[in-house]
Amino acid sequence: MSAAVTSPMRAWCHVGQAAAALAGGMGVGRFAYTPILPAMHAQAGLSTVAGAQLATANYVGYLAGALAGIAFPAVSRSRATLRGSFAVLIASLAAMPATESEFVWMVLRGLAGVTSALIFVFAVSALLSGLRESHAHLAGWGFGGVGAGIAASGLLVLVLLPITDWRAAWWASAALTAVLAAIGWTLRTAPGDPTPAVGAKLRPVWPGAPGRFAALLISYTLEGAGYIVAGTFLVAAIEQKATGGLGSSAWVLAGAAAVPASALWMRLGRRWSRLHLLLAALVLQGVGIALPALTDGVGADLASAALFGGTFVGISALALAVGNELRFPRSVGLLTAGYSVGQIVGPLVVAPILQQGYGPALLTAGAIVLAAAVTAAGVGRVPARQFSTPAVPLSEK
């Protein structure tokens, strides 16, 4: 598709291709590590600290890929970038079982981070430039591809691990990514730059916007640090307390909850203040992350997964929308960079307490997200909305 789509059928096909690319690049390529991690602890001798280091390597790679996408927009809009990134990502996933060297694993997860970020940059650019104003409301369903990929990879691991080992889970993840890459293989961007928001035009900065934006930036950075701890260790934390694959089941639930979440939060943002919705989503997520550490009940574990899946994509869309409403220059790029830095710092912050189990780490992460909510409240009243649709990041997850 070389131009913005106009017919509903073509629009849904376009959304489906973008969703497949996001599912493969992010949902599987980046987050399959979460449900496989407990098996690597048990079968490959991976320590909890090393598990955190592998996660950090992936997040450092993701930040590098995101910055590359911002610095070289022409490259990030090239279909060759999409295809080359998928090839490297699939190879990195398939190579994980070929070694038990933690250093090589770190390199492979770093490569996976770089390529998943580039895939995300391209897929989001293609999604928004293809839809334009005519079917802009469908964009949320495209972002639901991230959740669909999380659910699919979690279900795959849930089925495989009782009958095989961690190696087969990585190979199967590589195969699933290849299938999703094939669906999104012909995805292309349309002319134009949808970076700020679909159909949005930034106006001069409001008086006081720098201070308000600083509060938002700190909040979103804290969110990146808190959410990623759950995004990395939630399955392992639940598996540590329960048997029978409950952790993987919870991860499937988190992915399923994320599929409609972005579209839902976008729709709510048309009726209520996006800042108020952001505060609500952060509080829900903070409480949800802490739940498995506060109780041993199965219901609490599943509720935690549902709250996590139902908020993390929506928080990104809402935070970036508020940044654009403040009309602060380069708000999307700055917020995305802060979020990425938070994702690197989060696992490092909790690494020293992982020896005590995952409970303290989740409590810490929940507290960080609640601190993000308190900080976001410092943004204060946001001027009347100027945008028809929430801003969507070109380098975010």
> Roughly what percent helix?
over 70%
> Rg from C-alpha positions?
19 Å
Beta-strand level of the residues, as a percent range? Answer: under 5%
The largest pleated sheet is described as: none
Structural class: mainly alpha
**SSE ordering:** HHHHHHHHHHHHHH
- How many helices? The count is 14
Low-confidence stretches: 193-202, 384-397
Count the beta strands.
Answer: 0
Span of the ends, CA to CA: 24 Å
Shape designation: globular
Nearest-integer average pLDDT? 83
Protein model, in words:
The chain is mostly helical and 397 residues long. The chain has 14 helices and no strands. Helix 1 packs across helix 7 and helix 11 runs antiparallel to helix 14. The longest helix is centred in the middle third of the chain and has 33 residues. It is globular. The two termini are 24 Å apart. The C terminus is likely disordered.
